[in-house]
Amino acid sequence: MHDDWIALEEQHTSGVYAKIPLRVVRGAGARVWDAQGQEYVDCAAGHGVAIVGHCHPQVVAAIREQAEQLITCSEMFYHAHRAALQAELVALMPGMERVFLCNSGTEAVEAAIKFARLATGRPGVVAARNGFHGRTMGALSATWRPEYRRPFEPLVPGFTHVPYNDPAALEEAVGPDTAAVILEVVQGEGGVRPGDGAYLRRAQELCRERGALFIVDEVQTGMGRTGRMLACEHYGLQPDLLCLGKGIAGGLPMGAVLIGPRVGRLPHSVHGSTFGGSPLACAAALATLRVIREESLPERSAELGTSFLSRLRGISSPLVREVRGRGLMVGVELRRRVRPYLAALMERGVLALRAGPTVLRFLPPLVISPDDLEQVARAVEEVLKSPIAEGPEESDG
Ligand code: PLP
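Above: the input record for the complex with pyridoxal-5'-phosphate. Below: its predicted structure, written as tokens.
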């Protein structure tokens, strides 16, 4: 193999990623190792995908077993794992009736938008400022950040953005042309901003009153991340369409849309996916759901998240503007750009993420140990002791 994979990747990669010079070779639980054998506590977790930890033995066994039987089988045929998974996913939220399986978060959002337009016969979608829903054209139209949107305009018509946690703005925006309101329960990429329960409930109610559908995007908050299996449970929300992704299949690509009764039955051929619901991904997802339940990961996330948040809140640093989050979805907003602090954390054996230019974001596997979380908190404390000089201005895209 080519020794210098960094140079090789640099030569051929598309260029759309702001890359970090780390050569990752192996993962187990909440840890990953680089090519030199250096160990890291992984609070990036594949952008929150490794909910059950890296290479969970039950997920690995399920993938291995299924890979020897059948890897691909389109949804035009039936498969036992898909049938079982669909039943389990629908049961995650009482009242849900069906599920559409795809391969990523953005595809789940794309499908939910299409289903909402189809079911209501209306074009409009109301989304929130600082919301993030993905990068394909429909999902991107619901995403807020101008840097992501502008180069690709014109986007899909009919989308408007209102301030998050502002019920009056929503009242104003939802009208007779609105097919759907789409919201996150905790805005992830937009800065780890928890939604207000009364606001989210009002959004749901407004949709019911005005004939629109309520889409909740739980791609990042789902599968136990915020301390409940679904973040909707914190507020008793009952959306019409619920989007899932990231950790749902233990690291294999999968997205899903749970579909409620107000959507009605979808006609044949209006949507589809070649890879959606593959036996391999379904086997991995069934194993993942089993692990989440057997290891009580939502409860674990709630417990560890509460102590991690209060530990971080106890760090006294003039650099910190706010510490916020829910379960093991945690953000530390700085008065500085976070890039150099992420690099300093990495030097101390901790991988973390950004959420916008000034928020450090931690999305550790829910199996992380209290000791590892303490190591993360200590590293954060150390790097925040004194301001780090900012390098030359670079894009935060
Ligand atoms: N929706 C939310 C809330 C997300 O956080 C993300 C990704 O971070 C997406 C959608 C898009 O998911 P994917 O990157 O799998 O397309």
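Notes for the reader.
The chain has two domains: 5-56+307-384, 58-294.
DSSP finds 13 helices and 17 strands in the chain.
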